[in-house]
Amino acid sequence: xxxxxxxxxxxxxxxxxxxxxxxxxxxxxxxxxxxxxxxxxxxxxxxxxxxxxxxxxxxxxxxxxxxxxxxxxxxxxxxxxxxxxxxxxxxxxxxxxxxxxxxxxxxxxxx
Amino acid sequence: xxxxxxxxxxxxxxxxxxxxxxxxxxxxxxxxxxxxxxxxxxxxxxxxxxxxxxxxxxxxxxxxxxxxxxxxxxxxxxxxxxxxxxxxxxxxxxxxxxxxxxxxxxxxxxxxxxxxxxxx
Lengths: 111, 120
Hints:
The structure holds 2 protein chains of 2 kinds. Chain A is mostly beta strands.
């Protein structure tokens, strides 16, 4: 069982928007503004798409956005494209010996 | 340009010790705030953070694996080594090394990963 809870799957049609949730506790997601999201296509290494809750690394499409409310963080992808079909993982940094916890991952299907 | 590349055995027998090496370029592990970490992913499963070492030799470990892991660095060779003792088939996974920044989980640069199978 992962420390952070994500839905197993979400889906959407091209052009639509989807949101993936990531629920933790006040000891991780709710306690720090250090939530990241990674995208992973089959057979590839994960790619950072959001860090520090809502910041995008250079080169990441502005269709990706992040937010947080209480103990739940969210990744929103707008204007869905076929290339967005992938697994998405959230993670939180925590100031303890555990340091980093990941969610179980969400499979995004573009219909 | 930051790059990282993992290397190590593809097959390890149960109870043996696994040694993985990460060779990196494009940054220095002598720079303040910089670190290198290891994350693994079992087949079909989620990511699991294992260990991290910072520029000042501060080492952090996953509490569940702490007794089996050792992470070291060699700044002259731009490499980080992770050793895992007493491996088990459940340790079968793709192991990634990542560039890390102090006190964040901003893992922007990943190696390609190396698949390690634990089997007799």
